[in-house]
Design goal:
Layout lengths: L3 E8 L4 E8 L2 E2 L23 H13 L10 H22 L7
Antiparallel strand pairs: 1-2, 2-3
Length: 102
């Protein structure tokens, strides 16, 4: 059985993300919503992804610009890391008695 391939594309005209899912020459065409009465079990999922396929989906969503909520702090984390490295550099240069260039 061939692996599932997933491709994400931003549709700026519809403000959506289009997912293209294929396996060999077969493409996913329809996902149908089915009404389920309260208390009833949901129908079997129409799509199940392996861990590798789920990772591909996450990578594709990242490629088209989606990030996990709360990841805005990434810039702050990088700044903090850079400040920490600058401090370590100062300590190392001082211990080695090397003049630090700024």
């Amino acid at each position: 059985m061939k692996n599932i391939e997933i491709r994400a594309e931003r549709s700026i005209h519809r403000r959506s993300v289009d997912l293209y899912i294929r396996q060999g020459n077969s493409f996913c065409k329809d996902l149908i919503m089915e009404n389920v009465e309260d208390g009833m079990s949901p129908p079997q999922t129409p799509l199940s992804l392996s861990h590798q396929e789920a990772q591909i989906l996450i990578n594709e969503l990242w490629r088209v610009g989606f990030r996990p909520e709360g990841s805005e702090s990434t810039k702050d984390q990088i700044d903090a890391m850079n400040n920490h490295l600058q401090d370590i550099r100062k300590i190392a240069f001082d211990k080695l008695k090397i003049k630090m260039f700024e």
